[in-house]
Design brief:
By secondary structure, this protein is an alpha/beta fold. The chain contains 28 helices and 20 strands.
């Protein structure tokens, strides 16, 4: 076959068949009416033959009628419609068949001579299928080449498929792939991907004629081959990037759920405790990324527990390559069966984060929910630990939607492949990080922009990647010192609030963090500490003199670590800016209400603030159109009173329900319900308002004055403040 036109093909075929039936019926009825008008009896078989003839011989009815001696009679309207549409329909059907047969070949030449800026994918598997479907809104045209046949249908309509191709690269080369924008080599077999890459690179003449450049992404599962491939000489016209699906997932998850966004890490005695369930390829990359990115000032070493079957064997394999990492993290292990059967959660007290990385989606689902239940039973806190469940099945089906719904109820973070395996994450986000990485590299060279692009293109991929990690870590560093990197056109505050430099204390502190991050990356890429060598020999033998504590560095090397922070305004692209985070409002009361009750909420808020009570009201204090769990957790946690406006409308509001549940499970928050009408409580509200000792106080009646409500809240706050 062929194209991602299976669905379209079926529709066209159905349309043609339906039209054939309609035209045939019209013709049959028209012939019956015609012979009835001229008073001649004709058998149904004869009428059937005459009707079929409309499609190929009785086309020009008036001419045929002369030979039949029927010119003096009027042609019925139905017969007229049938005789005119039948030949057109037949011509369309023939055209459709011819196009279906030759379209594959025609499209190859069409793209060869007339099209450009498309994306070629060589190879097919479940991940490729997911990538194409998840990229349907990217606006990018995809052409898929694969030896496999009977491929499932795709949702993406901007796709052409050449399947069941035995000599796949010959077919690719016939298209002149050097006009493409991107090429993805995505076989399951690393050697096959490498072989196909060589086929592209073995055409230096065509590569030299490329007007701009092509980005070629080669998937490599073997970390050693991946590392070796990153050191191959670059070609500015044909830029090769290696990638790995599990690494993509890991880097996305680690950045998105960075602990500094949920946990106060400014305490110098804090040690992050993290559990990784499943130490397979994905678990390995989660650990690797975590070690390189979860680095914060004054934070003790990470304490990581790996849980899996045969975990000691897997741990030893990791430590055989990265044994020196024990200087920077405490890594323990536990057999999966021990965790399940011997109350393993009691042996790992107060974990901060858990990641589920098992290959089987249902195993991840089981352990995520069991972990939530076990620790909730111990601490009665739904917010800790932060559980990140990675849904590893590629397609977002009804099962994954059910899991997401359940996880939302249990405050489990859900990561689906649809958020990661797509054109934006793999290609567009890579380009954004590369721009920052390029500027970081230039801080050491101080080149003109035009020369910088040329020099950057000459770098091997491994050196470029060494700059990707500090580019990603900039966001961590800025959050830690209460700054944020934002789009230049967002949050239009005064230009004077845009930051161009930082104080010396912040620069020194973040430089130490950067040096530690750099050192850990060196360990994880196989380097050891030793004497100074010439650069090329140093990076070949992997020995570096600066893999020592910050305090032992000379002043020149310390200055290098300061560059990424000291000159941050120069490093960021023009469409980015740095701003001080807005000061948080310190409030006593969280006012929960439905949108329909906004006027009542504003009236009550005004009265409370007149009595010097500070009120937090979404979206006034929560700057987001639709507050999510993270916003709500943070906001409710910082208040002492949860004032719930109970009404028919609020009991139907999903946001109000989420707010009530969060307040219910926060031990330090007192819930005060205030009725706006006499509607009966639905079961959900009845449970959360009446099933716990702390909420057994009667609902404040809607007929009661707002003054009585103010007095009740003031009394409650006085009690809390005395504790």
């Amino acid at each position: 076959m062929g194209l991602n036109k299976e669905i379209k093909f079926d529709k066209n075929l159905i349309i043609i068949i339906v039209l054939f039936i309609v035209v045939f019926v019209l013709g049959f009825l028209g012939w019956m009416e015609f012979y009835e008008n001229i008073g001649r009896e004709v058998s149904n078989l004869r009428i059937t033959v005459l009707t079929a003839g409309l499609f190929y011989k009785n086309i020009f009815w008036p001419i045929v009628a002369e030979y039949m001696g029927n010119v003096q009679y009027n042609i019925p309207v139905l017969l007229n419609i049938a005789r005119l549409t039948a030949p057109l329909l037949l011509a369309y059907a023939v055209f459709f068949v011819v196009i279906s047969i030759f379209k594959k070949t025609a499209l190859i030449y069409f793209y060869k001579f007339f099209k450009k800026d498309y994306t070629i994918i060589v190879g097919y598997n479940e991940r490729v299928h997911s990538f194409i479907n998840n990229s349907k809104d990217s606006g990018q045209k995809f052409i898929l080449f694969t030896e496999k046949d009977n491929i499932p249908l795709f949702e993406n309509k901007k796709l052409i498929i050449y399947d069941n191709e035995k000599e796949i690269m010959k077919k690719v080369m016939r298209m002149n792939p050097y006009k493409a924008k991107n090429i993805l080599l995505w076989h399951d077999d690393d050697e096959k991907n490498k072989e196909n890459l060589m086929a592209f690179l073995d055409n230096p003449k065509k590569i030299s004629k490329i007007k701009e450049h092509i980005n070629a992404f080669i998937h490599l599962g073997d970390p050693l081959l991946n590392e070796k491939m990153k050191k191959t000489p670059p070609n500015p016209k044909f830029r090769v990037h290696t990638f790995n699906t599990d690494l993509l997932v890991a880097s996305y998850v680690i950045d998105k759920y960075s602990p500094d966004q949920y946990i106060n890490l400014t305490d110098g005695d804090k040690q992050l405790k993290i559990i990784i369930f499943g130490f397979n390829n994905l678990g390995y990359h989660i650990l690797n990324e975590m070690l390189q990115m979860y680095i914060f000032p004054n934070l003790n070493k990470l304490q990581i527990t790996l849980i899996d079957n045969d975990i000691e064997k897997k741990k030893q394999k990791f430590f055989s390559r990265y044994g020196a990492i024990t200087q920077y993290a405490d890594i323990d292990t536990m057999e999966y069966s021990d965790f399940l059967q011997n109350s393993g959660h009691e042996k790992i007290s107060n974990p901060d984060m858990c990641f589920t990385c098992f290959q089987k989606p249902m195993e991840n689902d089981y352990i995520a929910k069991r972990t939530r239940r076990s620790y909730f039973k111990m601490y009665e806190n739904f917010k800790k630990p932060i559980i990140i469940q990675i849904i590893t099945n590629m397609e977002k089906d009804s099962l994954s939607k059910t899991i997401e719904k359940e996880n939302k109820l249990l405050e489990i973070k859900t990561v689906g492949m649809d958020k990661i395996l797509n054109y934006k994450t793999i290609i567009e986000e890579n380009e954004k990080i590369e721009e920052i990485a390029k500027q970081i590299h230039n801080e050491y060279l101080n080149l003109d922009e035009k020369i910088l692009d040329e020099e950057w293109d000459k770098l091997v991929e491994s050196i470029k990647e060494d700059n990707y990690y500090p580019a990603r870590h900039l966001y961590y560093k800025m959050r830690y010192i209460d700054y944020q990197i934002k789009d230049a056109d967002s949050d239009n505050r005064d230009e004077s609030e845009i930051v161009h430099e930082f104080d010396k204390t912040s620069i020194d502190m973040l430089a130490k963090v950067e040096h530690l991050r750099w050192t850990i990356r060196k360990v994880l890429t196989g380097y050891i500490h030793g004497v100074e060598f010439e650069k090329e020999f140093r990076d070949t033998i992997k020995i570096h003199k600066n893999m020592i504590p910050w305090e032992q560095l000379n002043d020149e090397d310390k200055e290098k670590d300061k560059l990424t922070t000291d000159k941050l305004y120069k490093i960021l692209p023009a469409n980015k800016k740095i701003q001080k985070k807005k000061e948080e409002v310190n409030c006593d009361i969280f006012l929960s209400h439905s949108t329909e009750n906004k006027n009542s909420a504003l009236r009550i808020m005004k009265k409370l603030e007149e009595n010097d009570l500070k009120v937090l009201l979404a979206p006034r204090n929560i700057k987001t159109e639709i507050p999510n769990e993270d916003n709500l957790f943070e906001a409710i946690e910082k208040t002492k009173i949860f004032l719930l406006l109970v009404s028919k409308e609020s009991q139907l509001s999903e946001v109000v329900k989420r707010e009530l549940k969060i307040a219910y499970y926060d031990k330090e928050t007192v819930i005060i319900p205030y009725r706006l009408d006499n509607s009966d409580l639905v079961s959900y509200f009845e449970f959360y308002l009446k099933s716990t000792q702390k909420n057994e106080q009667a609902l404040v009646d809607f007929n009661a004055s707002i003054e009585m409500l103010v007095n009740k809240i003031s009394e409650q706050l006085n009690k809390i403040n005395k504790l």
